[in-house]
Specification:
Elements (H helix, E strand, L loop, with lengths): L4 H15 L4 E6 L6 H15 L3 E6 L10 H6 L14 H21 L2 E6 L6 H11 L7 E7 L13 E5 L5 H11 L7 H12 L6 H8 L7 H14 L5 H9 L12 H8 L2 H10 L2 H17 L4 H8 L8 H16 L3 H11 L6 H15 L4 H14 L3 H17 L3 H14 L3 H15 L3 H14 L8 H14 L5 H13 L9 H14 L3 H11 L12 H16 L3 H16 L6 H13 L3 H8 L11 H17 L2 H17 L10 H11 L3 H18 L2 H14 L2 H15 L5 H17 L3 H20 L7 H20 L11 H11 L4 H8 L3 H15 L7 H8 L3
Parallel strand pairs: 1-4, 1-5, 2-3, 3-4
Helix pairs in contact: 7-8, 8-12, 9-10, 9-11, 9-12, 9-13, 10-11, 13-14, 14-15, 15-16, 16-17, 17-18, 18-19, 19-20, 19-21, 20-21, 21-22, 22-23, 23-24, 23-25, 24-25, 25-26, 25-27, 26-27, 27-28, 27-29, 28-29, 29-30, 29-31, 31-32, 31-33, 32-33, 33-34, 33-35, 34-35, 35-36, 35-37, 36-37, 37-38, 37-39, ...
Amino acid sequence: MLERDEAGALAANAGASARAGTGRWLLVRGLPGMGRTALLDDVVGQESVRGAMAVRQARGSREEGAFPFALVRQLLPATEEEIPFACESSVAEQRTFHRLLDAVARDARRKPLLLAVDDVHEADAPSKRWLGYLARRLVGLPVFLLLTASADGLVGPLPEAAGTTLHLDPLSPAAVRRLAGSVAEEAHGNPALVHALLADAAGEPGPGRYGRTIAHWVRAGADPVVRALVLALAVAAQHCPHPRAMMREVAALGPEFRTLPPGADHLARILSEPPARQAALGAADPAELAVIRGRMARELDESGASATTVAAHLVHLDPLTEQWMTQSLEDAAEEALRVGRTAEATAFLRHALTGPLPVGRRADITLRLGGLELRHNADAGVRRLRAALELHADPGHRAAVASALGTALAAQGRTESALKVLRRENRTADDARCADALRSVAALIASHDAVAWRDAVAGMRESVATAPAATEPLMRTLVAEYDAGAGRLSATAVLDLVLPRLAAPEPVDPRIRTAWLGSAATLLQWADRLADARALADACLPAPPALPDPADAGHQCLVSVRAEAALMAGDFGRALAENAPLLDACTERGIRLNHLTAMVARARYELGEREAAWRLLGRGGEETPDSSWEWNELHYARGVLHAYDGDHQAALDAFLACGAGQDARDFVSPVATPWRSGAALALARLGRPVEGRALADEELAHARTWGTPRTVGRALRARAAVVGSRQALESLTESVALLRTAPAPVELIESLLDLGRARILVGNRRKGSADLREAHDLAVRLLARSTTGEGRVVVEARDAVAAHATRRTCRAAPADGDSPLSPSERRIVDLAVQGRTNVQICAELHLSRRTVETHLTHAYRKLGVTRRTQLLARLTEFGTS
């Protein structure tokens, strides 16, 4: 930015002030062409690169100047529903202004905010009034308001104390000479282009002379040899912009280019510049250009160039005329997918369909294209898959397409429609293997509907003994999933089923292989064989940045397993890195990934990103009658986050909603969503431990049936929260011992914290303090691999250690009305909080009734309460709950 140092310094100072919490405005005025927009873009670019500020941009336009708040809608799209579409009275407008200010303040509290508005003089009047309103309230906000306007454009009064107005002056002669020297380099010594570039730099009216000069070389009436050479060089420059490489590519096109005229290298240097190349191609006759592109593509294909290089020319030919062109586009799509360029692969396959294709091959490309389009637009992908189903006549191919279409419909939440497609194809299939494959995929998709899932399992249970080897493994693991969820199988029995089949796999039908592996991986994950489950997912899913196939039911399952395995292992950074991009790519395009949403939200919360976690859980919307098991995962995740927030009633409601959904599916085991443990803990925190006791005992019974240390240890922790202090100590001791043997670091930390508090509560301060310190050290090590900040478990463990240290200090102080409780008083109060009557406390602690009443009276006095119902809240304030 020549001679714009003052503007850059003012912008940098304003940005620094905003980042420090004191907002500033900067208004840049100047005539058209003075570089107002360039300056604004430069400031935005610098703040974006640093990442120090969030950026919102808008531009005033004469076309929208008559519509109230049109510019604000550009600037704050998230507030669309709060902005009126008509002019308001002064009072109503002030209310609107205040709501918009609140929205800006909320955004700025998350991250300092740059609001950049170009051509503000063209904006509508209410938007300009609001910008003035905002400018007068910037002092206490971390907001930088950057405005540009013409030299005499009306903007409205702005408070001088909070900002600066800067007028841009014309460049000096020295700057003009400097600018002309750098621009003229693109001419590469060509006199006509030097004059054209200088004229363009001087701002001559009309279209740029530089572009017009290049275009003249290829338009009708130009020298035909020069025209053909310019076009060929421009086409070659699109994939090899080096002048010598361009010359070699052109010389190989045919006899008329083998002897290039003098000066060809000079033209190659000029056309290696993008502006010159674009001008030449824009001026060419489309038919003549298509001939050159076709010849260039064929030459590249025959010389062994990459399919992507060949396809870059073929995509400009419409329609394709030869079958080799279609094959090149298919190969280019595969190359693009391997490096995660899904949109590019989609474009290649779409264009491949314009070529001459047999029906079967057209159907295959349509199927592949449908799977890719699902990643960007679920409805478009479903339509494409329906078209592929209509094209195919081969039973095997129809089964593959029907499976993909059913999976896509299920991903949209249309389980009933998905099952109809699969059942229809199953009825008309005249091949037994195809029919079995369709039934197996239908069973997997049926897991998204409670009634259909139950019926599908009943059917598989009857036929699995006689099923062919190609489909029996998937049937067997799906039945095992149901039985494990229903509490009928142990982890040991499941591993005995799955591991031998993975070690010596039978020939599974390729159409259901990923589905079988996904089901097996689910069982391995439930059984805490996280590394084995992860290995299956890594072997089947494409490596990042390539995305899984949303039309493959097995891929959907394996993605869920991979995410939950990372979460269970406490590898929160990995869970985000692998799954957040996929979630962003699919969720807003009509594909439901509620289970993945739950996993990513929990990982974000664990890393301290509370608001981002809750925003994710808000994506699910309202539950529909055609709901999936994934809704239970969302309910459970919401319960977990509410519990972390300390909103135990909301947590209880979410856990009970999860339980209702799981019960409807006959899923009673805590292997997936241990909602009873969550509900029992919430009830204990609400002072209703007696209600939580039945849930905790039921959870523990199911956990012991399954038999993994994670499930049993987790259930024991919940039980400890709703039983007496001595029994709690026993449960927590067993919980910690079990969890030390499991890949369950988060559960171990939580149980250690509870064990430490319980030991301190009964007077064993030394061991309790050691438990708290161990939990803190484990939390720090766990979070170190995922974030440099402090995650949830680190904060909780640190606070527990600090609370214990505070209590020890308080114990040394003279007793008064605010003194902490003695160990005996704490034991009795703890039981009272859990709902025990005085008689029950006497029996449990083997004390007389008078002793219990005396201790309670002393505790009431020390805590400043008069009723038993006040104890929990008061204990929480003292950090002794």
